[in-house]
Amino acid sequence: MKRSHPSSTNRIVPDAPPSVPSAPLYRQVREDLIRRVLKGEWGPGAMLPSEKQLAQDYGHSQGTVRKALMQLFDEGLVIRRSGRGTFVASHAGQYKPASFHPIYDNGGARVVEDASLYVRCERIAAKERVAAGLKIAVGAGVSQILRLRRSGSRTAVVETMYLPEELCPDAYALVRRERPQSLYALLEQAYNILITDVDERVRARLVTDDEAALLEIAPQSPVLEIERTALSLGGHPVEWRTMVCETSEFYYRRS
Amino acid sequence: MKRSHPSSTNRIVPDAPPSVPSAPLYRQVREDLIRRVLKGEWGPGAMLPSEKQLAQDYGHSQGTVRKALMQLFDEGLVIRRSGRGTFVASHAGQYKPASFHPIYDNGGARVVEDASLYVRCERIAAKERVAAGLKIAVGAGVSQILRLRRSGSRTAVVETMYLPEELCPDAYALVRRERPQSLYALLEQAYNILITDVDERVRARLVTDDEAALLEIAPQSPVLEIERTALSLGGHPVEWRTMVCETSEFYYRRS
DNA sequence: CAGTGGTCTAGACCACATC
DNA sequence: ATGTGGTCTAGACCACTGA
Q1: Beta carbons of B233 and B218 less than 8 angstroms apart
Q2: Residue of A157, A221, A244, A251 best to disrupt the B interface, most CBs of B under 10 A
Q3: Is A240 an 8 Å CB contact of chain B?
Q4: pLDDT by residue (tens digit) across B167-216?
Q5: Are B228 and B244 in contact (CB under 8 A)?
Q6: pTM for the complete prediction?
Q7: Nearest residue of B to residue A102 by CA position?
Q8: Nearest beta carbon to residue A251 from set B203, B222, B251
Q9: Are the C-beta atoms of residues B53 and B59 closer than 8 Å to each other?
Q10: Is A18 a residue whose pLDDT tops 60?
């Protein structure tokens, strides 16, 4: 079933028409693997077949399959560990798309977040800003989740998250019941949605009175506002959130 | 970036001790190529020898050299065009490590920065915060450079940069004379120092009166402060800067 | 046309993790 | 001991570029 010198006269991987027929083999393999992950063939954290096995299955050389896997690794979809294997990325594991989340104190030491405190979880109608962020219609149903991130006795961040009802029905109730440490881990297990990328925008502004009360800081203090759109594997927005951060005791860092 | 790990029975590229002897061959080749680019062996825009030629020169296989070149391409140090060749990136500024720099207006459109305006370039003694950031002694000589980033008729950022005298002697005078668009491009051409990574920390705070005047905003406004340490190839801090950003008209984004 | 990078193969040996 | 990914080789043919 192999071809010695493919490139122009090549087959497609088993029933995968979406890819351009003339795309390089490793690209076709990459896209088929993405398709299979999306289909749920391997859930988050699951181990993929070995390079050798995949090469055999696809009928291509190991080097070709390897190139596809390395690309998926670079894109963050997959974790590869020497001697162990290749695994679908999972928020339950080490996988985290870059974000500002890590909190450091002003001395530079990393601060452990000891608590995620859920304050409110409810279903509401999307207002304009939320609708724009999620690319849904104004007034569409969304789950709104308000969470505090605490470190020691201080509250460092006030997070407000929005999930579209269409993709994540009853997420507000689920979060209220489960109170997960990681929202993205919950999205994986409950909805089989993998967040692969986040787009973040940063501003400084003055706190609102409500936020000041939650953060236990003086009114009119400056705070950092991070606005995040989280994208699933297919590139569709799944979550929109704002993080209001106190930065006199803490600072935030790219990661 | 990709994974790497040592192999054991390999030689070193011609007289290149700086690299760890046990690093993979393609890594050694990559580092030697970087060294040669920094040395000026090929200027910006110049064509590198072909893969085949380099493979012969280094005494390694074409695949190994190719892997090094592809990595340099991914890092932006080099441009590769099929059928043409491999070229050193024309603007040294093409080698841009991630930063918050890109500025967007509140509508989401990218704002072109039309001007870098140098306000002050002088030699001073490092104060505590600067010394800590550059890992040098308090009181050591540093070049202090104050620059405004303007977009249209508005000033978006006030940048204050510090370069250690030991690594970049008379940088303040050089910058005053050259007024470069990119400081890192200047570091490359004047001192053969390549910035490969930046570490950034973010805070919100109130503007000082001096900054408010430069940014033409009201006193006591909230601003974003980004503190950056720039690291050279060897991982040594070469520059420490603060960027004070106005964020009512603009916002900043990871990139 | 000759030369370049891009793709692909089929092996080899290594370091590493797990059992 | 077995199986995994990581490195490296030495070839092949392709598509594209320019003279």
Answers
A1: no
A2: A251
A3: no
A4: 999 999 999 999 988 888 788 778 877 777 788 888 899 999 999 999 99
A5: no
A6: 0.78
A7: B201
A8: B203
A9: no
A10: no
3-state secondary structure of B104: strand
CA A90 to chain centre: 9
Domains, in order of start, for chain B: 25-90 (1.10.10.10), 96-252 (3.40.1410.10)
Residues A224, B202: C-beta atoms closer than 8 Å: yes
Rounded CA–C1' distance between A82 and C17, in angstroms: 8
C-alpha–C-alpha distance, residues B163 and B98, integer Å: 20
* Residue A255 touches partner B, C-beta closer than 8 Å: no
Cβ atoms within 10 Å, residue A116: 16
pLDDT band at residue B11 using 50, 70 and 90 as cut-offs:
very low
A23-78, pLDDT tens digit by residue? 899 999 998 998 898 788 998 889 999 999 999 999 999 999 999 999 999 988 89
CA distance A241 to A221: 21
* Interface residue A199 vs chain B (CB under 8 A): yes
Separation of alpha carbons B166 and B136, rounded Å: 9
Residue B30: CB less than 7 A from any atom in strand D: no
The predicted-structure confidence for A155-175, as pLDDT tens digits, reads as follows: 888 999 999 999 999 999 999
Residue A143 tokens read as 């789950």
CB A227 within 8 A of CB A203: yes
Q: Which two tokens stand for residue B155?
A: 């000033």
Å between CA of A194 and C1' of D6: 28
In chain B, the percentage of residues whose pLDDT exceeds 90 is 50
Residue B224 in contact with partner chain A when CB distance is under 8 A = yes
CA-nearest of B148, B108, B92, B112 to B251 is B108
| Burial class (CB within 10 angstroms; exposed 0-12, middle 13-18, buried 19+) of B39 | exposed
Strand runs labelled E in B70-137: 78-81, 85-88, 103-105, 115-125
Six-digit token string for A88: 């679908």
CA of B86 to C1' of D18 (A): 15
Residue range A143-160, pLDDT digits in tens: 999 999 887 778 888 999
